[in-house]
Amino acid sequence: MEKIYSKEQKNTCGLAKSSTETVQFLLNYSKSLNVTNYKEMQFESILN
Amino acid sequence: MNLQIEDSVLVKDYIKGDEKSLEILIKRHNQRISSFIYSKVLDRDITEDIFQDTFIKVIRTLKKGSYSEEGKFLPWVMRIAHNLIIDHFRKNKRMPMFEGSDDFNIFSVISDDKLNAEKQIIKNQIDSDLKILIEELPEDQKEVLLMRIYKDMSFKEISENTGVSINTALGRMRYALINMRKIIEKHNIVLTN
To answer: What is the predicted ipTM?
Structure first.
């Protein structure tokens, strides 16, 4: 029962870093995202 | 001498169209923001997801020109990450996830009686094969077998319905099963689940 209910203690102080793939994805997303303003409207488009 | 371009300058440059500025900003704050998210969610994959969603919001807000520069870029990004962490826990509260361990698997305690998709398909196949086999039986045996198995009638009820004695009904049932086994063996039919 102890094994079932006792929660594994995890180290919450560990340093984490997002992967280069994630960073690269964000940079590509940024490059592809285009916001166009027309009068009082905004249009978002993803350019491939 | 440490010459580091300030966040506010990088943000302005990025808004003007300098993509390299965003790269510097992300790389500069990656560890801090990721560690903050990880300290709350305690899962590397979820950390990556929330980090990604955070910067997608950042990018969209900056590109739309909705960001007002007050020299607080990092606190702003942290606030977005914080809100996304709350969203993550709210979502999980609605649909809690339980992870079993090697010692204990929740599915050994909780399970439904239904067959899985594969077993259900096999069962349907067996049922249809059996119907074909039953059609091969002599009429009197087939009648008793159908009443007993598919209509769940007792042998007393079968005898009353068919007008034969209980012993005769029992005998017909026995021969029906023997004959079905013979057909199965003769044609090498495999019925398993």
So the answer is: 0.75
